Amino acid sequence: MKISSIDNYNASYQVNYRGGLKSLNIINPASHYLDKYFNKMAEASVKHVDPVSSVLADKIRIARINNISAWDINPASVKEYVLFLHGMSQNVSNYQRLYETIAGKNKGIFALEYRGYGLNSSARISEDKLRKDVEKAYNYLTEKKQVKPENITVIGHSMGGALAADFASKHDNLKALILISPISKISYLGGKFMQNKNLGVGMPEKIKKFTDKFRPLSKLLDLRFNSINKMKKISVPTYILQSKNDSVTTKEGASALIKTARRRGVLKDFRYLPLGGHKVDSKKISIVAEMLDKIYG
User: What are the start-end ranges of the H helices in 156-196?
Assistant: First the structure.
């Protein structure tokens, strides 16, 4: 495969993307390392399954969609839904306080569990496969449950934020999009998270230096989970929430995403919090509740 410019790299990426990034992995060790990390996090997610809260115990219904599943929480059988997409090292059980708050707003929650995550059977994942899982969940909501697209708000956290942005770029009839500490692009992920093995990816210095040295490889890596590029195609009302002390997704990345959303004319609200880190804590949950009030009036 002869590659002479960044345009050729981009073309190669697009051609090989659907095939699992095999060609990309061969020429880009940083991308190959990230693939291993993402799959490692999916496997680890089963170790952190939280017990079901007493508030939700009799309200959760498990939807099975081929090799994926979802928590369907809608005791009042309402037709306004939140499609929730969780982060790369989490599973659906880890966000129950958020679900309780959304349910308290008289909204249904469809919390997607990707293939290979949580209690789903083990499976190799890729960005492309996760995107397909989101589409499957959406089709289940709109076809089997007969929920209108204009009654669906998509909320994504971290990696789920990048998946939510990608999804919204292809569906312009959604009610709204809420991004919580989203991945804006790989180069905006925190340095400690990328390089410290105890705190995150732990990418070896030699791989990082090699990728940084060859700029086309860095550019190519930034095509992955790139919410900024996706935002350029989004027509859905967008809300963004970010902690300044987040060591995973950074304020710089959120600022670039906010700037793009503002230029696009879709930014309705954004919040910077001084604390809270990367987690969806009680403060973030309360702000999401405020945003939902604005969205549904």
Answer: 159-168, 191-195
